[in-house]
Every structure is written in C-alpha cells, then in structure tokens.
Amino acid sequence: MSESPLRAPSRLTIADVARAAGVSRTTVSHALNDRGQVDPRTRERVKQIAQELGYRPNLRAQRLRTGKANSIALVSSMPFSVAGGPSRLGFMMEVAGSAMEAALRQGLALVLVPPLDAAEALLDELDIDGAVVIEPAAHDRNVTQLQRRGVKVVSIGRQPEGDQALPYIDLQGYETGRILLQHLEEQGALRTALLIGTQPRHSYVDMEQAYRDFVGARDMPVIIARAEEAGGESAGREACRALLESHPGIDAICAPVDAFAVGVVKEVQARGLRVPEDIRVVTRYDGLRARSCQPPLTAVNLHLDEISALAIDLLFEHINGRTQRTVVTGPKPGLVIRASSVSPRGN
Amino acid sequence: MSESPLRAPSRLTIADVARAAGVSRTTVSHALNDRGQVDPRTRERVKQIAQELGYRPNLRAQRLRTGKANSIALVSSMPFSVAGGPSRLGFMMEVAGSAMEAALRQGLALVLVPPLDAAEALLDELDIDGAVVIEPAAHDRNVTQLQRRGVKVVSIGRQPEGDQALPYIDLQGYETGRILLQHLEEQGALRTALLIGTQPRHSYVDMEQAYRDFVGARDMPVIIARAEEAGGESAGREACRALLESHPGIDAICAPVDAFAVGVVKEVQARGLRVPEDIRVVTRYDGLRARSCQPPLTAVNLHLDEISALAIDLLFEHINGRTQRTVVTGPKPGLVIRASSVSPRGN
DNA sequence: AGGCATGCATAAATCGATTTTGGTTGCATT
DNA sequence: AATGCAACCAAAATCGATTTATGCATGCCT
In A187-231, which ranges are continuous DSSP H helix? Predict the structure, then answer.
C-alpha cells in the first residue's frame, strides 16, 4: 500500500541513494547487487533506503556498463505471403504467445521481428543479446547477419546445411511426415502425392525423406511437387492443378505448408472433385488456416507452446555461455484428425 | 555486395572512426547525425569512412545519453484464462502481428508483455518509452504503473473512467453491438439475451448501451447476464445455463467474449437444443475460437490490422510530444456471418 | 613495536555515445 | 590595423550505472 511518493519519472539515481544513506555510490551499487565487501548492516540499510525512496536503477546505464540487453528477438524467416493472409503469421504468433511468457520468466524481454525484407537494415538497430529464428532456410540472411553481430541464435526446427551448426529445437519432421502418411493410408489412400516448398528448409527435407521411405516400402509411385512459398495459396493451387493433370490417379495430397494445402483444396473442389472422398488432404501446421478451411484440414499438433519454451531456455543457456547443448527434442507430434481426410461415413 | 570485413562483434567505437578520419569524436558524431557545424566535405568523408569501417553506434550508449529506448511494449490486460486456451491470446497476437510491422517502420522495437500477474514487477524492468494496452479495464494496474514511470500509453479500445483520459483507438463498440443485434433480428430472433463480462471494460459498456437501445426500441425484454472473464468457457456455460432456466423463451444470445460464446454453444447443445435453429449465438472477436467452434460463430471483423497500425502511429506521435490527438477512429466493423446464427435453409 | 592480513568504504576509471562550451581560423567591415 | 562574425573543429562534461584500484583502520602474530 505504501504510496510511492515519487512523481517525476524515475529521476532518482544511485547518487541520490548514496547521499540519503551517507555512503558512496560504490557502496550503494555493491550493496544492492550483493557484490563486494560491505558490512551486512550497511548493506541492509542501503537496501532499505533505496526501497523507501523507490529507487530503480537506470536500465540504459546498466546496460551500457554490463554489455547486456536483457532482451531477445523472435524472428520469422517465412516470406510474407505465406506468413500473412488470414492467419497473419499464425505460426510465428503462436510461438510468440508462449515464448513471451517463457522469456519474461527469465527476465528477458521478447521483441518481435516481422518478415519484412526491409527488416535487414533495422535488424541491427535492435539491442538484443539473442534471437530465436523460426525454421530458417539454409544460409538464411537474418541468421548470418545476427551471428556476425555476435548475437546468439537458436532455431525452432533445424537449419539445413548451416554454415556453423545452429543450436535448435528438433521439430521431428520425419515423424510428422510418417504420422500423416500413415493416417492417409489408413483412410484408404493408395496414391499419395507430396507437395512441398522450394526453399531449403529442413522440415521439407525430413518430410521428403519420410515420404520416400514410406512409398518405397509399399511400392507406391513417388509423386513429388514443389511450389514457391512466396506464391501462397495460388502457388499451391497451381501445383495441385499440375499434379492432378499429370497423375490422374492421385487420391491423397500431403501439403505441409498450410497455405498450399488450402490452395489444393480449392483447386480440387474447383475441378468438381470432393475432399476427402476423391482426394484426401492433410497439412502440417494446425493453425487458423487449417481450421477454417472448408472442409477443415487434418493436421499435426506440434506442441508449439512447449517447443517455444524449450527454445527460450536453450537460448538463455547459450547467452550465459553455460551449455554445449545443441539439439533439444520436444514432445512427439500428434495427429489432429479433421474432415479433410476422413470420409463422413465409414472409411 | 561490399563484404563487411569486420569479424569482431561491433567492437568499433566512435573513437576508431575519429582516429581513422583524423578528426575528433565530436566531429564524427556531428557528421553522422547531421548536427552541428561541420564542413560538408568533412561530413561526407567521415560518413564514408564510417561506412567503410562498418561502424555502428552502440545502442546502449546512445540510449543512455539521449534518454530514448526506441522500443514500445504491447500489453494485454485480459486474464489468462480468457486470453489463453485454444486461441492462446488470439486477440493480442493478432494485434501484435500487424503492430510489429508498424512499429518497425517507425524504427521502434515491439516487445510483448504477457498477462502474467507476476508481470507487475517485471513491467518496470522494461526499457520502453511507450506502450499499447489492449482494452484496459478501469483503473488497470498496468496502465497506472506505466504512466507513473513516465511511459506514454495509448489503448486499443477506450479505457472506462480513466483517471486521466488515455489516448485511444476507438473500437466502435456501440456500432459493433448494433450490427450483431440487427443481424440476429434479421435471422428471426425475438428474445435476445446479452452475456457480458463483469470487469469494467468499455466494450461492455458500449455493448450494453447498444443492447438496451435496441430492445428498448422494440419492446423486447431486457435480459442481461454477466460472467467472470477469469472463468473462461465454463463461466460462459454456467451463465448460459442460468439464462435458459430463468428465461426459457430466449432464442438468441449475444456473447461478445469469445470464450463465453463457445461455452454458450456447448451448454445449449448439451441441453439438446440446436444452434442456430433454437438458439442463435453471436460473438465479437473473430478469432480461432469463433472459427473452430461447432458450428462456427458469427462474429465481427474489427479490422485489427488497421487498428493496430493506428495505435502505433498514435503512440509514436505522443512519444514525440507532437500531438494532442486523443481519439482515433478506425474502420467500421463488419459482420462475418457463420453458421451459429443462420439456419441452413431459409431463415 | 614492527609487519601483515583483513574488513570496510571510497575515489576514480570505465562503458560509448551526445551535448556544451570554448578556441582557432579566415574573411569582411570599419 | 583593429574589430566582428561566422564557420569549423575539439576538449571536456554528461548520462548513470559497474568495476578496479586504493586508502584506512583494526586486529593478530611474532
């Protein structure tokens, strides 16, 4: 209840406390930070007085001296057209939602960096001592730029061919693929096609591997298409058109990029075919896009809340230089079954 | 393409540039910031050299000296149970998505502040010079705390009974209410109930006013219930139960809090009634919750992307002290019709 | 008594910029 | 030639903390 008597915005400096306590600035600093040699009684008295005065250290001064920013950034590397649209950076925002909590628990502020192209210049205007990058492509510009500045970086999802291996949280892309493909098989799919992005992301590599292993073990045909992430829904749609024309027998499409998957559904329906009766469709990220698609898309629960917290913790350890951990594996992905892959009655 | 030759993490100081250019630190500072009296040729040469060396000013030093943080916070005041759950802070995150872009355009970093109760202590560990608060309740702790620190604050949605009026972006709560109620009427509703939260938020005030005006003009009964935001879905459900029991004739419920609306739908269905045939349900925020409800909820497009950008701009003006603008009105809300209020065939 | 730790507190240096103040120079005016 | 006035540049103060180096008692030991 002690009504703080200060009106001026945090005008108090360490000198004021020192004067009030009748000691030097040094002693105040030592007392408050539990450092140096200070008589326990003096220490307590100083703390008391600082408390009463409502003293708060000036963060900017502290940072200049200590060289720490106490803040980290969350960076998306997806092109805007995929990230934007109806879900407006859904993936990143879902991560941000739990990451900000985890960050604040560590005493770190979380700053958001949108996937602007122009962001490059602004990226090193940021006073941060670490960054979490979401699914970086190989040789991601943001990543190298940050690392050159000496900012610690960890990624959610492994970076392919990283110049120097980035510590990362494993998203278990192979397992994710396996789960989706197996589900499609259980729903009766005999010819499943894979539609992935052109950029060198690790989740595609994993997905492709899972796909090849899967169809290889079953003597199914290998049908893989690629589309530009930047093309968003329409790129997915276009790729779907090409797929259906060149491989009429397709009865399922696995499109890990949600924007592509929505495009696929639209194209299928536009051709007078039905989802899921004629073509089953599944995607990876279970976000707004997947859920508000008609029919809603079967997807995977990646447990992004836990993943984000793990990422923050890992980054924190690396910033404080007290870890060699370079891979952290999160919870197993779980299937979220929706109407896009399951026929209304029976299977 | 000029490959930056520096490897050490931004070790260069203004002194290095000064030495290289053969001038004083002062002149370098003046030259780079287009300040003071410097020979245009010197100025250009200094800039050139700084560029070549890859000099970047130390942000912490700059901030200590200038007293500006160049960052702002986005603060949610909703209790976690409403904000969390399946949509995981949907409203806040949607705002964050566009706000971060707008912020970076102004050269501001956007930091996220989760609705932790414990956040109070951490809130003034943040080095920010402004904050956007989302729909603050009257006498919101965060708001007063920030203002006392001298941090500029603007809100998205007006703060009720603000001690000193907060500049805000008008969410047009009255208009939102009118749109929803009119839609329900058009769908044949004769007895619409209103379910709002107990906390003193302006959107409730507006909504209630719109409701009273609406039913008053039509000789419909006034049926208003309130539930604790902190109770989330189950509170909404409980309130719905009470409503249906005390007013059996209800044929529509307007529940602006999406968590409440979902609770309402569940309760209605649990009682063997149908949505929308027996009870029409509408909500305000068109987020994940509204869309993944079964049936999906009719809601309102608040144009949060534009709203957020307006908020950032307004805050920016206030930080730079060059505005008296205290209210900014965004785009008109628009109805998003979904199955929760429209019967499958005919109306 | 001389010598040596030891405990406590302070003065001064430091972080890297910006801003204030002051001092040269060159040129025009009387 | 003396004065004034810009224009240009630099030294030093400043921002508010942390860290280092130093000083001064006091107590203990031989």
Answer: 202-216
CA distance B240 to B228: 13
Whether residue B295 is preceded by a cis peptide bond, meaning omega within 30 degrees of 0, is yes
Contacts of A94 in chain B (CB under 8 A): 88, 93
- Which pLDDT belongs to residue A93? 86
List chain C nucleotides near protein: any atom < 7 Å from a Cβ: 7-12, 14-20
CATH 1.10.260.40 fits A14-65, yes or no: yes
**Inter-chain touch A67–B88, beta carbons under 8 Å:** no
Q: What is the pLDDT of residues B243-265, one digit of tens each?
A: 999 999 999 999 999 999 999 99
Q: Which residue ranges make up each domain of chain A?
A: 14-65, 71-171+303-329, 173-302
| Interacting residues of A292 by C-beta distance below 8 A, sequence separation 6+ | A86, B291, B292, B296
Q: Using one digit for the tens of pLDDT, what is the confidence trace for A291-333? A: 888 899 999 999 999 999 999 999 999 988 777 889 999 999 9
What end-to-end distance do the CA atoms of chain A give, in Å? 65
Residue with tokens 């290289």: B20
Cα of B42 to nearest chain A Cα, Å: 25
Q: Does domain A71-171+303-329 have CATH number 3.40.50.2300?
A: yes
Nearest-angstrom CA–CA distance, A97 and A102 = 9
Cα–Cα nearest to B75, from B193, B20, B156? B156
Query: Span A266-295, mean pLDDT?
Result: 93
